[in-house]
Amino acid sequence: MMGRRLRANTALWSGLVMCGAALTGLVASGLPNTAPTAAGPAASARQDAGEPCPPGMEARLSDPGLPGLVPEGGELTPDQAAAYEEKLRKALEPLRSQDIAPPREVPVVVHVIQAEDGEGRVSDERVRDQIETLNTAYGGRFATGPQTTDTGFRFTLSEITRTADDTWFHRFNDHRTTIRSHLHQGGPETLNLYTADLGPGLLGFSSFPQDYAADPEQDGVVVAHDTLPGGGRERFDLGHTATHEVGHWLGLFHTFQNGCTTPGDYVDDTPYEREAATGCPEGRDTCRTRRGRDPVDNFMNYSDDACMTTFTSGQAERMAQHWAAFRGGDPRALTMTGAAAE
Ligand code: ARG
Ligand code: ZN
Ligand code: CA
Q1: Range of the domain at 232
Q2: Residue among 250, 72, 69, 107 nearest 191 (CA)
Q3: Structurally, how many domains does the chain consist of?
Q4: By percentage, how much of the chain surpasses pLDDT 70?
Q5: What is the pLDDT of residues 152-165, one digit of tens each?
Q6: Pairing of strands 155-164, 191-196
Q7: Start and end of every Peptidase M43 pregnancy-associated plasma-A domain (predicted)?
Q8: Does a structural domain hold residue 20?
Q9: Closest C-alpha to ligand 1, atom 12
């Protein structure tokens, strides 16, 4: 499918930020910016913010005007994370433990948005490499050390759609609501993966499974086109932006969610971490009174792609729970629990 689109409605991208300037939240959450420094882009953004944020209070961006789109491109407040957790617990109540298993085939529809001159045209081969990278990552085959987990999740490419439109490509964020309602396919079990130009400071963003019921068409993952394997994005072109965003799509928070403060990322076997990692700070330990070094090699951190190698078994279990609660099971069960519908 190849279409040319006209200008569409502009969705407001309003930022409400604590501990720092508006742009800081976006850059720090999206990672690299245009002018990398030795310390790395996220680190320099953090310094510019002045006052360091207290634990669990990193600069954040939220989007209060757009229900269902709150966490995109930003970080969750402790309250937002707790609200997602509450919905998960409610939705799991009627399920039995044997219902909680990851799917062997998650269908993936990839929507390539490109400029009219061909910029951002991701080849079919690169799309297939991305799916392969997801399968390698979720199969636990990037890790070399003892820490390696096959999450059980596997992904199958079902379709590639192609759209050439300068506005949609260059200003995806402003038009994301329109774009996704035009292109979204399938139900809660289908991964819609969009590629476009997201600007210099943002690698990708995702919706959470809890948001599906209220806004099915907006469900999915968006990544910068050059983050796919071999895409040319410096330090971020091994395809792990998609790995990371799909982790959110399956319900995971960042490993540094809530900083050193309980309940952290709501996963028992990921050590606490005060703030996002940049580069590959192997051996870092930012929560000294908490057990374990920072999970800098975890896909749900902000490290360089080359440094990200693993999910933990706790994360695998949590993804399977979200799958069962919001994406997998009997659609009737979903309606009955009323998950995410409030
Ligand atoms: N924008 C992403 C997020 O906040 C950044 C993580 C991508 N990191 C990477 N190494 N590819 O969800
Ligand atoms: Zn993230
Ligand atoms: Ca943890």
Answers
A1: 106-252+308-328
A2: 107
A3: 1
A4: 74
A5: 999 999 999 999 99
A6: unpaired
A7: 239-321
A8: no
A9: 205
